[in-house]
Amino acid sequence: MKKDLILCGVGGQGILSIATIIGEAATKAGLHLKQAEVHGMSQRGGDVQSNLRLSTDEIYSDLISKGGADVIISMEPMESLRYLPYLGKDGWIVTSSKPFVNIPNYPDNEALQAELKALPHVSQLDIDAIAKKVANPKAANMVLLGMAAPYIEIVSVEQLREAIRTVFARKGDAIVESNLKAFDAGVAHK
Amino acid sequence: MHSSQNEQDSRFYGKFALIPILEPSNQQEAYDMMKVAFEMSEKLQEPVLLRVVTRLAHSRAAVEVGAQGDENAFNPSTGRGWVLLPGIAKKQYAALLEKQPLMLEAAENSPYNRNEKSGTKLGVVACGIGYNYVKEAIANFKIDGINLLKISQYPLPESKILDLAAECEEILVVEDGQPVVETDVKTIVGDKATVIGRLTGQLPRTGELDPDSVSKALGYETQSPLGTAKNLAGRPPQLCQGCGHRDVYTALKEVAAEYEGARIFGDIGCYTLGALPPFQALASCVDMGASITMAKGAADAGLFPSIAVIGDSTFTHSGMTGLLDAVNDNSNITVIISDNLTTAMTGGQDSAGTNKFEAICLGLGVSPDHVKVVTPTPPNIPEIKRIIKEEIEYNGVSVIIPRRECMQTLMRHRKQAKKQ
């Protein structure tokens, strides 16, 4: 089995933490993994993405081919569309529904929503609102990871939960628990 | 290629210096090759170049690590090999040439240069990471009939390439960067085979390789079944909200607008983003320190006002020599050292000159009356504008140092303080 994931968003939204958690779960499960990313000025509000490839067999390319991604996991709706050429025909877009507008020419939200809704497999949620309600606003990326968890398949929801415990362990029990709550709220959204 | 002026393939340097090059195709090889490179270097008593391309540098995977060896004995040279006077250097060069057959033999027998063959329809020479994209395409499209020669150690193993040319009429060279190997393979095989690649258009001449371009070169096109989105806009990186560089550019742009033909020469750091909207303030950004040297050259050629913007760590990296030159020639420039007390763009490392900039500028000979420190905040913009204008009007070298901590490190420091 192999799963190709594209994680994306705006610099500073926490996509690399999502990659770290999936990576931890995959490593523990003994899977092959490759993660390519752009960084550098990634804290500066530009678009950021990471290609994460997981497989039971050897992985060659660090980059995902056009039409090869199984899931696009996005912290921002327009950013999810940026990588559409890479999504496979049965692939899923799992995204936050809330636009992050820091550019003057951000597209019209209704047109953006219409385009997203016309795609076959899209899961959207206002992850900021959910994170605020069940945990804290900073855990929005864990809500998103929870939403994506059922589609990642190659690592189970429980394995991802365990990876959250490991990755956040050094920050203390309270942080682990609030991230798990956010993650579970994401999983519950179908 | 992310931010160099052009591709600048480091394999040219290996050829130029007549030393071996190792070019890993994946993370495990990058790890293993470092050990091989040190051993080879000890054996040959020559440097060995390890070439890492953009994608390998920006990607990660798990690697199996080996046992750590003992540290080499500290063994400083006692001979005259490091005294490169002409008489010695000539002998060294002859000795280096004598080592070339050893390097070639090592490459011919290297486990990193190996043949994987499922036919002879097409010969493929795949260098470094190019090998991964070829393997990916072969697996994706179940391609048969490829005679694949993986190259990860140089000088090029000529006999392996001639073997390939004896079996295949056409050879595709897949390499990241410039067509270095493609040119060499052409020379090696002569008219025994047709060589194709970046130079002949099967692969794009610019940009890094990816699985799509390599599949296409092998005759199989990847598809985007869901097409391309319409509701998209570019989202370039921006200076952080609250960043001091923003206040510097706001003031500087307003003052520069008062002069016809004013030019602001930029440098390398977060503040290079001043070239993009909303500021669009910079006329240049070339290499570290070039803001000052280009401003000096422009001023000497008659440009006024000629303004340089350089960050604190770039200034200590290679701005100081240019400033000394400007002082010596009494060039009419205004230098802004935008000091955020850190090396911000690479993640907030310490900056070598923190707390020393006034002393450095005075030591280099800038007049004490024309070294000014300001705090870049929105309320101070009128004062900063006044000072910039005064220093532009001064005929000679002035340095203005706007100083305020980077927002990223400030937030980090506040968080740490809260914990304690």
Question: Would you kindly provide a written description of the structure presented here, covering whatever features stand out?
Answer:
- The complex is a heterodimer of chains A (190) and B (420).
- Chain A is an alpha/beta fold and 190 residues long.
- Chain A is built from seven helices and six strands, in the order E-H-E-E-E-H-E-H-E-H-H-H-H.
- Chain A has helices at residues 15-28, 77-82, 109-117, 127-134, 140-152, 157-168, 173-188, and strands at 2-10, 32-37, 47-55, 69-74, 87-96, 122-125.
- Chain A has a six-stranded mixed beta sheet.
- Chain A is globular.
- The two termini of chain A are 24 Å apart.
- Chain B has three domains: 11-59 and 86-108, no CATH class; 114-217, Rossmann fold, CATH 3.40.50.920; 244-410, Thiamin diphosphate (ThDP)-binding fold, Pyr/PP domains (Rossmann fold), CATH 3.40.50.
- Helix content of chain B is 39%, strand content 13%.
- In chain B, the strands form three sheets. A five-stranded mixed beta sheet of chain B has the order 4-6-5-8-9, sandwiched between helices.
- In chain B, helix 5 (130-141) packs across helix 8 and helix 10 (290-300) packs parallel to helix 12 (320-328).
- The longest helix of chain B is centred in the first third of the chain and has 23 residues, at 86-108.
- The interface between A and B is large, with 51 and 44 residues.
- Strand 2 (32-37) of chain A pairs antiparallel with strand 3 (59-60) of chain B.
